[in-house]
Amino acid sequence: MKLDTSGLESFAPLSAPIDDLCPDLSAPPTFDLPRSADFDGFQKDAIQMVKPAKGTTTLAFIFKEGVMVAADSRASMGGYILGPGLYYVDSEGGRLKGTRFSVGSGSPYAYGVLDNGYRYDMSIEEAAELARRAIYHATFRDAASGGVASVYYVGPSGWKKLSGDDVGELHFRYYPVAPSPTEQEMSELSPA
Amino acid sequence: MECVFGLVGDGFALIAADTSAVHSILVHKSNEDKVMILDSHKLLGASGEGGDRVQFTEFIQKNVHLYQFRNGIPLTTAAAANFTRGELAIALRKNPNFVNILLAGYDKDIGPSLYYIDYIATLHKIEKGAFGYGSYFALSMMDRHYHSGMSLEEAIDLVDKCIMEIRSRLVVAPPNFVIKIVDKDGAREYAWRESVKDAGVAAA
Fold it and tell me: Is the dihedral of CA A166, A168, A173, A174 positive or negative?
């Protein structure tokens, strides 16, 4: 049986044309690569980065400076984040391309905070704080989410872990406890 | 809650679909394009479960392209519809695809046509059709106002009537719709009908 290799035939000219008459003819399609010395390693590292960050509230969004990724640290589920774009992929074969996603049992809580605070042109610090806050609020309301809120930034020169805060600590940072009057009075009593 | 509906007019066929990507109570995306451009003169509007819609429709699209690469000529709309139905039928008793499809196309000597293909591999050539909860409203609207040989203006007006009815009467109505058209000049996007804009969209 003769093998059908017609699909391998290329219609592009064998060598680049020298003349200026058809400048666009043999220009191969191109796309931007991340500015990193080790492109294959960058892709692999991006996958490794997501593995330990398995949480039940995971979110990621695209903004002006790149991609922000955040997750809590409790068991199961996880979004698969890929390259400079952002895709939501699930175990049923669903695939969505978008700018903002959250997955897991705590995701509805995270979506609310994320959607409300989102702007495309945020700085990296603003975007990280938005991601952190959204995870915190989800861990507050969802019993199955909690632990540590990890925030990662993915940009043209690779990924970087920005923070890993215990959500219990975040709670008192966002909502500090004012000392009650009785305690203050007691500390003013001089010893007899 | 996914709605897809379509009709055949004078020298063209239209397909409209909602653009929400929903997971239980969450709307993940409100600008998801569910009407695929199958080839230069064919549209495939699909509604169905999770991965099945994207995976099955892309599979059909790539096979339609492959036929054209191998043979140098495109498939007719009828051939593409029968191929799609065949694939659904083969998979039905093993790993069924829960996708409902409206396939619209324009063939040079035949004109515009619309095919109804449901998830259990039923195939019908039709003038107007609809899938999803929205079909309860769209079908009667189309039955009342449709006539064969409608102009583009009349057809878009009918599509808008259906969308308004779905928006006002369906309990969890999708806010946004996309309308695509296929005629002698090819398959292309005609319009979006948006009542909720995605915040801070950077052309995803």
Answer: positive
The predicted model scores a pTM of: 0.74
Cβ within 8 Å, pair B51-A94: yes
Q: Let me know: does B65 contact B72? Beta carbons within 8 Å.
A: no
The pLDDT assigned to B1 comes to 78
Tokens of B105: 């196309």
What share of chain A has pLDDT > 70, as a percent? Answer: 66
Q: Give the chain B residue nearest A109 (alpha carbons).
A: B26
B20 to chain A: closest CA residue: A96
- For chain B, state the CA radius of gyration: 16
- Does any CB of chain B come closer than 8 Å to the CB of residue A93? yes
Q: In chain A, what are the domains?
A: 57-174 (3.60.20.10)
Report the distance separating Cα B100 and Cα B118, nearest Å.
Answer: 4
Q: How far is B64 from B82, CA to CA, in rounded Å?
A: 12
B203 contacts chain A (CB < 8 A): no
Partners of A115 on chain B (C-beta within 8 Å) are 199
Mutate to test the interface with B, among A8, A87, A100 (most CBs of B within 10 A): A100
Residue with structure tokens 């950077």? Answer: B202
ipTM value > 0.90: no
Contact B16, B81 (CB under 8 A): no
> Which letter, b or e, does each residue of B145-173 get, where b requires 16 or more Cβ atoms within 10 Å of its Cβ?
bbeeebeeeebbebbebbbebbbeebeeb
